[in-house]
Amino acid sequence: MADNKWTKPTNPPPPLFLGEKERDLVKQVNDELLERVIGQAITYLPLSMEYTNFHPLYGEAIEKSFLPPVRVYALVEFDGIGTMTSDYGLDKTYSIVVRFHERRLQEDQNLYVREGDYVQYGSSFFEIVNLTEDRQLFGQVEHLFQIEAQCVRTRKGLIDFQVLSEEVQRAAIANATAMAAPAEDPPAPAPEAPEPYEAAQIVYEASDPDSEVAGVIATPIAEGESINDLFGIAEGTELDLNTMMIFQNGLLQLVTETEGVGDFYLNEDNEIISNGDLAPGTTLVVIFLSAIMSYFGA
Q: Can you tell me whether residue 2 is helix, strand or coil?
């Protein structure tokens, strides 16, 4: 009789159909649905905690620095454009809800969604203002698989990125591909679809420590001097005339590779040299057209 006595096991039995293999299967199916079937892609712009100058008391920053953008596939719900009436007139509100696959982001792309980060959807940029994790996998509270982000559209001027049209993006990608190809080989054709590439205009305003106005210089620039330091261009950075524009007092300037020709010229050391004197009070803006193909996560 002693041999037939029932003994309680030390540990409870594992779930019959809700174990690790089943969770991995759900992840794989979700990955394929998001990326190969639905295909809604956004660009995630994480804030750089190291280089952003936060206010020591309030923790806010007017000028923000970003880490390299990451392409993310997610479910995007468009809430529509609403109109609000205030004391100053009409105001348009524009918001979206982005639902991220948590395991895909954290395990495969090493990306963690945070309030205060930004996303690009279409030609607009949105700030993440609220995060919610409300979906349990198989009712297991320790396994949450969805992050829901409430995002509101940012106002112009908060982010100095401009999303270009698809035609311009293709041209930028083709130019970057041709520049990367060996001289003896013919330029590689542009891909049929813009993803996973992205082209954008990156705007840099002149930063003069003696000036109180962004983009306006207070120190005179003599003919033959470099303006690289005004835009924080590191020494040795390769510049390309085909993807660069300089505006002086709002007017597009002629940039060449020959000294004394045009308004500015680019020398062999990748320095932008002024062909004329620049007086204090001059507004300088440099726009770089960049195909940021290598910045996107898998």
A: helix
